From TrEMBL, chain A:
Cellular component GO terms, alphabetical: nucleoplasm; perinuclear region of cytoplasm
Transmembrane segments: none
Single Gene Ontology BP annotation: tRNA methylation
Subcellular compartments: Cytoplasm, Perinuclear region; Nucleus, Nucleoplasm
Keywords: Cytoplasm, Nucleus
Gene3D superfamilies, per database record: 2.20.25.10
Pfam families according to UniProt: Trm112p
Stated name of the protein: Multifunctional methyltransferase subunit TRM112-like protein
Species of provenance: Aquila chrysaetos chrysaetos
Gene label: TRMT112
Broad class of the protein's primary localization: cytoplasm
Keyword Membrane found: no
Database matches in InterPro entries: Trm112, Trm112-like
Keyword Cytoplasm: yes
GO molecular function: protein heterodimerization activity
UniProtKB/TrEMBL annotation, chain B:
Family designation: Belongs to the alkB family.
Requisite cofactors: Fe(2+)
Region annotation (Disordered) ranges: 477-517
Subcellular location: Cytoplasm; Nucleus
GO cellular component, one term: nucleus
GO biological process, one term: tRNA wobble uridine modification
Keywords: Cytoplasm, Iron, Metal-binding, Methyltransferase, Multifunctional enzyme, Nucleus, RNA-binding, S-adenosyl-L-methionine, Transferase, Zinc
The organism of origin for this protein: Aquila chrysaetos chrysaetos
Name the record gives this protein: tRNA (carboxymethyluridine(34)-5-O)-methyltransferase ALKBH8
Domain RRM: 44-124
Main location: cytoplasm
Catalyzed reaction equations: 5-(carboxymethyl)uridine(34) in tRNA + S-adenosyl-L-methionine = 5-(2-methoxy-2-oxoethyl)uridine(34) in tRNA + S-adenosyl-L-homocysteine
Biased composition (Low complexity): 503-514
Amino acid sequence: MKLLTHNLLSSHVRGLRPGGGFPLQIQASEVRVRPVPFNAAFVARLVPRLRWAALLEAAESLGHPSELPPEPAADYEGDESFLRRVHHILLEVEVLEGVLQCPDSGRRFPISRGIPNMLLSEEEA
Amino acid sequence: MEVKTSKGHLKVHKMKKKVLRKQVRAQHTLMRHEGIECISHPTQSLVIANAGLGNGMSRQQLLRIVEEYGLVETLLMPPNKPYSFVKYGTTEEAKKAFDALNGKEVTLEDFGQNIVLYINFVEKAQKTLKHRRVKHFGYEFCYDNNNVNKDKPLPGGLPEICDLFLEKCLKQGYIEHKPDQLTVNQYEPGQGIPPHIDTHSAFEDKIISLSLGAEIVMDFKHPDGHTVAIMLPRCSLLVMAGESRYLWTHGITPRKYDIIQASELGQKVGTITADVGDLTLNRRETRTSFTFRKVRRSPCNCIYPSVCDSQKGQQRQVQPSFPHNDMEASKLEQEYVHKVYEEIATHFSSTRHSPWPRIVEFLRSLPKGSIVADVGCGNGKYLGINKDLYMVGCDRSKNLADICGEKNFQAFVCDALSVPIRSGSCDACISIAVIHHFSTVERRLATICELARLLRPGGTALIYVWAMEQEYKNQKSKYLKEKNDSKDKEEEINIGGVQRPLSDQMPDSSSQDSACSDRLLNDLNDEGCAAKLVADSRLPVHTNRTSFHSQDLLVPWHLKGGTKKKGESIDTVSSPAGSKESQELSPVFHRYYHVFCEGELEAACRSLDCVRVQKSYYDQGNWCVVLEKL
């Protein structure tokens, strides 16, 4: 699970407050860093879609502090070194084993071989 | 003077090749199950596969057959085995018999059945093979029914010496319960155990096996034919859980050498790969295994019903019917969609390799850097199509999602009714051959709502579902066209049939963040499908590659072995009746489908206020829609 995927995931346990269930807290037992070819235009397009604070928090929790500013600068599109750092944290760091925890309900979702299991039981859905 | 035509030559050549192939197969079976080593140079002794007491050959008849070629010194027919041994006075006589009998068709006198004999030379004619030594503690294991006698525990329980070890295993989480049954097996070189699954109803899930004395190779085989060879080093613990305990068979080939990875000799557990450069022969030595298991006290309820003795009886009795509420729908889908896909995942994945052009076209038309969700991604067929997209797949089947993970795609497990992705975060979605697995109108509409929820305003979703009409505009779909071809491949094509009356009212959707409001589905009744009341609400079973006769039905899936070719017979060496090695016909699974009639999908989408239908078309037996989020 890459951090970009994590940024999209939200707990869907029934009965959460509006906007609840995000972001999922990561407890990783195995993390892998794998190089991915860098494409500035690709990354630039992704930046506005991100929940920025959640991304920084996730990177911290994995022990990969991202050296990123609290908010993207206005001219981020032209800033290659910024984009490279975003690229690294979004696409090159993967959680292979661990747990995702819903911040509101406490429900834990296991991650195994890079695949989170977000399936809820009948009662929870 | 006889002149053979070239055609004649070719025919003879082909026949010889066929016989040779089957002879080699018989060799392998004999070796794998019985530990009989066949050799390539002529000797006085022969093994005759397919002619034994175990498959209906009588001593009288066999003697008459083999006497013809020379003086028979010994004729050995081990009880219950499908093979026999004959030793001639000289090697020449044995050779004569070999040439005459190999591949020869013979009619069994007692049964009238025809069989084909396959002959191989052996070092020695053997009466019985020395069997591995076995001892049980806790409960006696009965090899007649492969189960334990749960009411008669053996006095003494498990030896105390095992306690500390078992505590450790519990602590480490290798097992959930303290085992109460122990089987000790001792394997000398040349001994093994035939492939089997530990009876589901006998033992709980996690089974552990400690290997002492020597390393050995254990073979695991999946019902679809896939095999994996695992090296079990000395002093290692094998933990079988989930699939490996319930679905794959495991066995040890009776032989004197194993082929292993030279680089890992004695070091770590691993699968043995096909890296020919690294393989080496390892001579077997005496190995003693200690297999600890917990006796099961309630019926097994695993997700592999086709190989489960607790569930097998049940499945045949219950005939599924059309669901009348959400709970029934969920139960139906659990039995006839989810459980099935988990079991057929590997085979299913192997038949899903050609991406459909119009779906590829849709993906390629999306702008670079788009975030795209594939809901019901299966084996990840579409996740790697366009490298300029960030695609995330999700599937209800953990096994299928794992296959995506193996391919290094981003994927997770979830239900399409409740996708754990934040609203409005996707530029596009695709849902290919998914929604037709939901068994009520409400649930199908709810999945479309979910797709819409994921999209940002202006985002698009592509949906494909099976069409009832498999012949459209006078063109037969691929599914129907391939009727005469190999039955192995099953393209996801829908077939038309009689339509059921649509249900009356749809309750208001209460999904979070949903901008959709729902309208009554009564409008759908006017869309041009002829409604016909179906008297019996039982779901019919469809015949593959024919037209559909009902919108709600069960479609068979035949689980096949990986490399089985068309026309090949099941096995050359038939198993004797009553043997534990029963040759199972390939299992059949039934999957639930609701096939859509023309306009149905489009109408369902139009009933939502938050989307507009951009495109609607028919593609190779599917009804397709492109939605745009407003």
